[in-house]
Design goal:
The complex is a heterodimer of chains A (228) and B (193). Chain A is 11% helix and 39% strand. Chain A is mainly beta. Chain A has two domains: 106 residues, Beta Barrel (Elongation Factor Tu (Ef-tu), domain 3), CATH 2.40.30; 92 residues, Elongation Factor Tu (Ef-tu), domain 3. In chain A, α1 packs across α2. The radius of gyration of chain A is 20 Å and the shape is globular. Chain B has 193 residues and is mainly beta. Chain B has two domains: 147 residues; 38 residues, no CATH class. Chain B has a nine-stranded mixed beta sheet with strand order 3-4-2-1-7-8-9-6-5. In chain B, β1 and β2 form a beta hairpin. The chains are: A mainly beta (228), B mainly beta (193). At the A-B interface, β3 and β8 of A face β1 of B. β3 of chain A pairs parallel with β1 of chain B.
Amino acid sequence: MSIQNIINIADTIQINRRKVIGIQYTRNEIARISELVTRNPWRFSVKVSAVLRYDLPATRALLEELDRLDRRIPEEITFANNSNLNWMFSYQGSLTLAERNTLRVSRFGDSTHDYNELVLTGLPTTGANALPTAVMFKKGDIIQVSGYPYPFTVQNTQVLRGSSNTISITTHRENFIDTSVVNGSVVAGPAVEFNMFCTNMPTYTFVGKNMVQFDGAFELYEYTGTIL
Amino acid sequence: MSTYIEEVDSVDRIRSAEFIKLTVIGTNTNAIYTFSTSYKKETIGGVEYSPMGGLIAIGNQQRDLAVTAYDTSISLAGVDPANISLVLNTNIRGSEIEIHRGFYSDGGLITGMYPRFTGIVTSYTISEQREDQIDSFSVVINCSSYKSILENNIGGRRTSPDIWKTLYAGTDTSMDNVVNLNGAYFDFGVPVK
């Protein structure tokens, strides 16, 4: 729980979701873009407050745990546990938590369907959210298949309930988890989990009695290597 | 005959990955290793290519209108000991290597596959670089195209009757008298008596 602790006390969090892209300009200045298909991992650059109190037991435990994780062990983190951060990935649709829990993955790509098309079933059949105009998701909403800590974001402007048994969502990246996600439940909103490891674990310096500070930002990188 | 690659014709944006098939020639059976730079497993032609299966990078590849001889390299992550075992415990030199380039739609579906390089592995390098607290480990296999191999190939036929007749089903008698000439002494330039 050390990377999670760093998230919880973060001063700033910079998010980088850029793809691997090469751009060439022709003689007449027309851009030609070549993209490598990747898993488009999440990357966070997290800065924490300048000085931590070393005399607090939590700080010593945190430092020890960070030294154990180093740059090699990933940890699942979430933004749900902290009221100061859970606004970042808040859910924008109208589904209640109970209604979201009934959603199931019907399809997330196969040989004939796009791998960035997430089809969900288990939609509400009664109440206000059973109306065709009810908003299930909005652009920027974040969604994860339970048990797979690899969040996807919604790219549709908004996804309405409609009259079908399913809804179709275009995600920001393709499903690299494979078809094992079919029939799985989903998590939407700040409770999604990120499987991150720290590619640049900063060292720390004692700057006075019982005062310690980190020497740089925590560069977190989504670890997707468990899916082969 | 030319191959028309519609995925790159009149488009300003492409998405692609490279697929490598390494066939290590064995005494009895061949071992086939397949991996790609793609984001997930892909099955192409009945062969499954694992994503990033230890693959770091593919070296520069020359593109010419005519067939030219050139070399390239493939880097494998040495973090996985299997890659070191692959080059040390197998006859990787001389293995066949095929590189294809696959084009993807925005939805992550392969729209076309095209051959990019065909050749054999000529050498390999295992290197470890430890600098400060960063330990980088890599296995690089160098590959030559078949044209390079053919250019360096020394070929020919022996001028004996048997060898000559293997090609023409015994009808070629051109070399039949060569045996009689073996060891014969020729007194060139001496007046005929």
